[in-house]
Amino acid sequence: MSKQINVALIGNPNTGKTSVFNALTGLNQKVGNYPGITVEKKEGVCKLPRGVKAHIIDLPGTYSLNASSLDENVVIELLLNQNDKDFPDIAVVITDVENLKRNLLLFTQIKDLQIPTLLVINMADRMSYKGISLDIEHLEEQLHTKIALISTRKNEGIDKLKQLITNYKDISVKACLDIKSIDTNYFENLHKAFPNQLLYKLWLVITQDVNFGKTSRNEFDAVSDFKTKSSTDLKRLQQKETIKRYQYINNVLKAGQTIDASKAKDLRSKLDRVLTHKFWGYVIFFFILLTIFQAIYDWANVPMDLIDSAFASLSEWTKNMLPPGAFTNLISEGIIPGLGGIVIFIPQIAFLFLFIAVLEESGYMSRVVFLMDRIMRRFGLSGKSVVPLISGTACAIPAIMATRNIESWKERLITILVTPFTTCSARLPVYLIIISLVIPEGRFFGLGYQALTLMLLYLLGFGTAVLSAYVLNKVLKIKSKSFFVIEMPNYKLPLFKNVALTVIEKTKAFVFGAGKIILAISIILWFLASYGPGEAFNNAEEIIRTEYASEHLEEAEIQKKIASHKLEHSYIGITGRAIEPSIRPLGYDWKIGIAIVSSFAAREVFVGTLATIYSVGNDDEETIKNRMAAETNPTLGGPLFTFASGISLLLFYAFAMQCMSTLAIVKRETNSWKWPVLQLIIMTVFAYIVALIAFQFLK
Amino acid sequence: MQDTLAELKRGEKAIITDVSSFHIPLKLLEMGCLPGTPVKLVQLAPFQDPMYLNINGSHLAIRKETAAHILIEKVTNE
């Protein structure tokens, strides 16, 4: 039989679920989204013994089947829907040997759905450190399952796990808890009303609809009307259920697990004493941030210079190799420079994702949340807002999705609204090129001025985010329960494989996502810049030659004048000059204006746009930077990118809301157009005013 | 007047006696915060809030206002 086995990986956060997924699938994985929602869907294929194949889904981490967020809800949606093509033949519950008791709660819930459920006890290599010993046979018998004791870190037990998945049909589907024991009357009635359905399933649907809002489960539609109890009563029953489950687990573990605390080596408390210290904790956090920025600036420079010049020569080479004509120009002047504008930032973006992945994997991020909660609360945020604010330095989109675990709606909404102020990686291209043009190269206490400027811009982003949160907290009148709970996981050395896969995958997503937009925009821009209406554009050569006839200019000089005349009278030039009056007070010319307008789709388009505009009709092999440095200011004379206009531009990009995708995500996460529209208007107006003041003050 | 978890001092141990079901979300119970469970205050964050707890081997951080709805009995150990 060639049927694939559907395997669902389920587990609490911080149990190494993703490591197991990576160990099983290797590079045979893809990441997408669940239809209609922005929850990440990770699937992969694993080859099992005897030529069997398994289709593996890595479900979002959850502490229980009682979902309290969109991500967690995905798990229950899948497990309740037998018609889903991904409905698992076998559920594999991943647990952490050090938190077995808590992890088993989820296991008993899934087991009670009568899906064959396999128990994986991960991090077995930690057992001797912690003085833990397990009686696997006893546990298997008591929990009616098979157990794979594995260590993804040491790569042990994976083959056994594969073997057990292959033989999934041998696993008993006996339930752990008799749900009727919670409230006999209630469940008898429920059973009478729906005799053909599994009671626990019915119970989940009822409580879920009450707690989380109704979702799409056609076959159970009638069930959710069967309440007969108030939601307070239901909640009380759920608490009773939880207590019963823990009693059951305690009984099982009493004989199955022994912990000799005297043998435990406690790295956690030693590290915690320093990392969450009321003074050193913050100092360390600050130094970690500093290192990240220095790395992004200094270490990434070498590969970036290489990429920049490679694209410049590639463009030149295409021009020479292909027959001359409009198509060649489109490639060499439109597409290649446009793409170069994004490829160049791969090194930096990869570094950023690398650091974030390491901070998350090591368990340090939770300590930062713990340290920052009290401070953040003063600004109407939660300690958990730190994670979106930090990962917002990579991209606001995953950052806004990362707000889902903030329990209080008001704190979450404020976090969503202010996150776009943090310096995302799309701003980085703009910042870097402008900084390198207008900030001198010297050093100050070993730190480059340029790196410091970048650091300041990041701090400015955070500062603005936090201050606007403070204002929003005062302005928004939303009543919402303040609640906060976070697990403090063990410290772990990040696994190279996990970190590498995250970095590769996120960078890829960023480059291809942005690449598509940039490709489309650079083609459009190239057309608009290469064609124009009327006499002024079509007879450019004649006009210029007559105008400069008496001056005996060299042929090259004449060609340059023709090119720039053409550009000015092309479609893009006409549009650009139409908007020029509104941006001139900020110190920009119409070309920057075009770049700003086109980067309303996505900020990183800015550099690509300028690259495309500047290379149209320009035959020299030049890097983007050199071309920008050569631009002159049409009204004031002198170089276009001065300290004043540069700072003004930096500030504009720091504050303006220029990212369609972020607006779309905010709409989706807040379920209303009100918030994204407000965000767009307020941020953009603010950016304009600040940039205006800066330029007028500095010029 | 019984003690609440919010009054626990650093390093002190206690047993949870009751959890106000109205104020405490199910999630916290599911993470192991149940009556009868031993609890230890590992660390207080700067400004004395939130609290970093070890609840029967499970390490969690919660805010003081939540902890105030959890009743405890202090364990005076040797």
Main pleated-sheet profile of chain A: 7 strands, mixed
Number of helices of chain A: 31
Q: Which structural class best describes the helix and strand composition of chain B? A: mainly beta
Question: Mind telling me the C-alpha Rg of chain B?
Answer: 11 Å
Number of strands of chain B: 6
Give the strand order of the largest sheet of chain B, numbering strands 1, 2, ... along the chain.
1-6-2-3-4-5
Largest sheet of chain B: 6 strands, antiparallel
Low-confidence stretches of chain B: none
Number of helical segments of chain B? 2
* CATH third-level topology of chain B: SH3 type barrels
Of all chain pairs, the largest interface belongs to:
A-B, 44 and 32 residues
Distance between the termini of chain B: 24 Å
| Tally of DSSP β-strands of chain A | 12
Helix content of chain A: 55-70%
Q: Whole-number radius of gyration of chain A? A: 30 Å
Helix content of chain B: 10-25%
Structural topology:
The complex is a heterodimer of chains A (699) and B (78).
Chain A: E1 5-11, H1 17-25, E2 29-33, E3 40-47, E4 53-58, H2 70-80, E5 90-96, H3 100-111, E6 117-122, H4 127-130, E7 132-134, H5 136-143, E8 147-149, H6 158-166, H7 184-193, H8 199-212, H9 231-256, E9 257-259, H10 267-275, H11 280-299, H12 301-321, H13 326-343, H14 346-362, H15 364-378, H16 386-391, H17 396-401, H18 409-418, H19 427-438, E10 443-444, E11 447-448, H20 449-475, E12 485-487, H21 496-530, H22 534-538, H23 540-547, H24 555-569, H25 571-583, H26 590-598, H27 605-615, H28 624-630, H29 643-655, H30 660-670, H31 674-698
Parallel strand pairs in A: 1-4, 1-5, 5-6, 6-8
Antiparallel strand pairs in A: 2-3, 3-4, 7-9, 10-11
Helix pairs in contact in A: 3-9, 5-9, 11-14, 11-20, 12-13, 13-21, 13-27, 14-21, 18-20, 19-29, 20-29, 21-27, 23-24, 25-26, 26-27, 29-31, 30-31
Chain B: E1 3-4, E2 13-19, H1 26-30, E3 38-44, E4 51-55, E5 58-62, H2 64-67, E6 70-75
Antiparallel strand pairs in B: 1-6, 2-3, 2-6, 3-4, 4-5
